[in-house]
Backbone:
């Protein structure tokens, strides 16, 4: 940010460029992590980036986990333990 401001960029323009570079760097890091995981003996079936800790809830994580479980019994077990997330229970009950 300082370098951009020193080069004569206006504050808003510098802020936008920093945000773009941050997104680019995070995407590159995510690509590297996914490549490394794909080479594992048991690679993950799905990826989910959890980025905002303050407003994060487990709904997207639970949906992703339930969707990759291939055994219906395991899906039911996972969903039934999530009583706090009634919408997830209802969604998977309707699917079955």
Residues:
């Amino acid at each position: 940010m300082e370098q951009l401001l020193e080069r004569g960029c206006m504050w808003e323009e510098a802020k936008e460029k920093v945000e773009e570079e941050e997104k680019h760097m995070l995407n590159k890091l995510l690509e590297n992590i996914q490549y490394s995981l794909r080479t594992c003996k048991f690679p993950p079936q799905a990826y989910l980036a959890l980025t905002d800790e303050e407003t994060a809830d487990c709904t997207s994580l639970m949906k992703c986990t339930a969707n990759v479980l291939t055994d219906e019994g395991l899906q039911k077990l996972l969903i039934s333990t999530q009583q706090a997330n009634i919408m997830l229970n209802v969604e998977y009950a309707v699917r079955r």
